[in-house]
Amino acid sequence: MIRKSILTLGFVCSALSTASFAATAGDVSPDTAMVEIDGNKLTLADLERLHPSALFHARNTFYEGERKVILAFIDDYLLDRQAKKENLTVQQLLDRHVNSTIAKDPPEEALRVYYEGVDTTEPYEKVRQQIIDHIREMRTNRAKAAYMASLHQNAKIELLIAPPRAEVAVKETLARGAANAQVQIVEYADYECPYCQVAEPILTKVLADNAGKVSLVYKDVPLPMHAHAQKASEAARCAGEQGKFWEYHDSLYATKQFEIPQLKAAARQLKLDGEAFDKCLDSDKEAGVVKGTLKEGQQFGLEGTPSFFVNGRFVSGNLSAEDWRKMIDMEIASGSARKETATR
Question: Which stretches of the chain score pLDDT less than 50?
């Protein structure tokens, strides 16, 4: 899947195979002059006063590259250190602990079965060696990853670069969980997005497992490719006017029924005032609020749904329940201050 910037083409509904944790590109004083116009110096504070989230995406992008380099350096350092302990070169170390553990090439019958699943018009004899090379590479990568994990487990490693904390507006938002929770998750999502639908039961479990410690704020980002997402978001907020936002929110994710008659029927199933709900939905009363959160996401440079801010720290893509546990424990241990949450 090709992911393109929301700034020009809108959100991409997507999930990452590995969640990415973004952080800052370095500290710059708010008083630092960024540009001079007709002799008038404008500072970073001036820029962020007008566009509070303008630099957040750039800082995240920089950090992702910085973090990737640092993690690669850690691996190189650990390998070099272990090689010296065993009086070997790094290559000899890898031969001993990685390459020697790799299984022999698959038998001919297995290779032919593998070939049948390959999307190619080339004859088996022509691609046979490529298949073998690919299998060897996969096995080597898995074996090396397992060995590196063992080296990491035997070392105390702490990244000393601090994550950025975005100023995410949460007043007048819809929150579930303890109002004074130590960890606040702000989710930017789309009811029609299949990856958001996958994330929903995981988030429900996370809240249940961390009762009193975690709160969730939901923000709508109806994607252009989802024809019903805007009205579904409006409908949930219309239900919120009658105090049943989360019940309606849960219903949307459970039923995946987004046609206008279905949205209205769902309100009646929740025993809302049907006439008041219909009036709210038909009048586009909540449309401005929904479009506002979409614009907010654009300003942060978010590129996909679901996207999250955990105490202001950006997290992109779907996380497993275990990923969330580690993230929450990390936030609580670090004592990171969370933003005030207004519930409705």
Answer: 1-11, 15-26, 337-344
Q: 229: closest CA among 272, 188, 201, 271?
A: 188
Alpha carbon 79 to chain centroid distance?
30
Residue keyed to tokens 């998750």: 185
For the chain, list the domains and their CATH numbers: 67-153 (no CATH), 174-334 (3.40.30.10)
Neighbours of 149 (CB within 10 A): 10
d(Cα 51, Cα 100) in Å, to the nearest integer? 56
Q: What is the pTM of this model?
A: 0.70
Per-residue confidence (pLDDT) for residue 103, from 0 to 100:
87
Residue 242: which H helix or E strand, with range?
A: none
At residue 48, the pLDDT reads 72
> Rounded to an integer, what distance in angstroms lies between the CA atom of residue 270 and that of residue 263?
11
- Go through 80-105 and write b for each residue having 16 or more CB atoms within 10 A of its CB, e for each that does not: eebbeeeeeeeeebbeebbeeeeeee
Distance CA 185, CA 207 (A): 10
**R_g (Cα) of the chain, nearest Å:** 25
| Tally of CB atoms within 10 A around 289 | 17
